[in-house]
Amino acid sequence: MSLISVQNLSIRYGAQTVLHHVDLTIDRGEIVTIVGPNGSGKTTLLKAIIGAIEPTAGQITLKRGLRIGYVPQRLHIDPTLPMTVQRFLRLTNRVTKQACQSALATAGVPSVLHQQMASLSGGQFQRVLLARAIIHQPDILLLDEATQGLDQRGSASFYQQIEHVRQQTGCAVLMISHDLHVVMSTSDRVICLNGHVCCQGSPAVVASAPEYRALFGTGTGGALALYRHEHDHGHDHDNGQDHDHDCDHNKMDGAA
Question: Is pTM beyond 0.85 here?
Answer without folding.
Answer: no
